[in-house]
Every structure is written in C-alpha cells, then in structure tokens.
Amino acid sequence: MLPATLPLHVRELVFKINGVRVLDGVNLDIPAAGCTAILGYNGAGKSVLLRLLHGLLTPTSGAIEWSGDFKPEQVAQRQAMVFQSPVLLRRSVEANIRYALTKRGFKGHDRVSQIEQALEQTNLVDIRQRHARVLSGGERQRVAIARALAVKPEVVFLDEPTASLDPAATIVIENILRGATNGGCKLIAVTQSVGQALRLADDIVFMHRGKVIEHTQRDEFLKAPKSAVARAFVEGKLYE
C-alpha cells in the first residue's frame, strides 16, 4: 500500500481577492478517515477553502501540509473533486469514465476493471451507453462521482454535490458517498444542509466570515454548538 497523504494540516491559511480577506488565518487538522463536512452560511469561505485544499487556488499566505514526502503533482494525482454543477463530456456515461481513467494513466485491463466497478458503485450500469446530454440532474451527478471514484483517489472533495437535486436523487448519492467512505475513501464535503451533515459526516468544520469557528465531532457539534453563530445555523435561523 502506498504511503498516505493524510491527515492534512492547515496552518494560518489566508486567501485575498482584490485585497479582501476571503479566508482569514484558517487552522485545521483534518483526519485521515471518514467524511469531514464543512458547514456555514453563504459567503463563509467554504468553497474557497475546498479549492485551496485541492490546489485549484493558490494561498495568499499560510501552509497546506499533506502528510508524507510528496510533490504537489503527486498529491493532486491522489485526489478528485466533484462540483455542484458537473461538466460532462459530450459522449456516453461509460466514455466519460474512461476518459478520466485514461487521463490518470489507467490502461488495458485495469481501466476496464475500474470502469465496471465505478458503474456498479454508482448504479449506472443500465445507462452506461446513454449520452450525457440526455441525463437527469441526479444521473449527471452520479457520472461525476463515478469519474471521481474510478481513479481510486485517497481523497474526494465535494462542493455541495446535492444542492440542486430532489430528495430521491439526494438519497441515492448519499448512499453512494457513504459506501465510498466505508471503502476507505476520505471525503471532504461542503454542504449547507445540517441534515446531510448528520447523515454523512464524522466531523464538522463550521466556518463564518472566512474563519473556522468550530471543528468537532458531528454529534457534539449538532447537539451543542459552542458559538452563537453555529447555534443559529443548526437551528435554521438567520445570523447577523
């Protein structure tokens, strides 16, 4: 087994846009296993943090410290990301997954095996030859998740993966994600749904105005948030 890039340590992370601090001195220790949910009101900096961790953005200052002695490109090869609105290639479900595997260097039998496993894992076997353009929103998101899981990442980042989906599609995707964590894949997921955090998360990072306000185990956070802003969020209230 390859050495792990987790746990992850974030130290005094700052990200500015036009001189404005979107993230303001974030410190985190993210565990190696399970699902870490990032919660907070709109504008808290959740998605920016996710993109920084995945390497899509460069910090203004501070450090993102993955475990082990890896170069940035090696860390990136062991990760995948799923966005709220997936961008799929104009080809079949199976071809979308094959493309992701090819880009990561999978060939021959290994590629075929990973395609089959990803299709089964995401309940897409019956529509494997359907063109991506005719898929429903839930099916499109499952293809995006299948592409992510197919490359056998150590970490998958998810940015509100069910925000635009109906309850039935959300349940299907949450079951797939739960199966991924049970199989040893680490998930770091942004969500605004307390219910989703309850169903999926092991630990919760709560952000507000670019800062991490709390980071604790799921049950502890949901039962007794320590800050007024987190209590308001859990109770579904507005907070000034």
Account of the 3D structure:
The protein is of the alpha/beta class and 240 residues long. The chain is 37% helix and 25% strand. It has helices at residues 46-54, 72-76, 93-103, 108-121, 137-150, 167-182, 194-200, 218-223, 228-234; strands spanning 8-17, 20-30, 35-39, 61-66, 79-82, 155-159, 186-190, 203-208, 211-217. α6 links the parallel β6 (155-159) and β7. α3 (93-103) packs across α4 (108-121) and α4 (108-121) packs antiparallel against α5 (137-150).
Distance between the termini: 48 Å
* Share of residues in helices: 25-40%
Averaging pLDDT over every residue, what do you get? Answer: 95
Number of strands: 9
User: Quick one: overall form?
Assistant: globular
Q: List low-pLDDT spans.
A: none
SSE string: EEEHEHEHHHEHEHEEHH
Oligomer: single chain
Gyration radius, to the nearest Å? 18 Å
The side-by-side strand order for the widest beta sheet comes to: 5-6-7-3-8-9
Q: What composes the largest sheet?
A: 6 strands, mixed
Helix segment count? 9
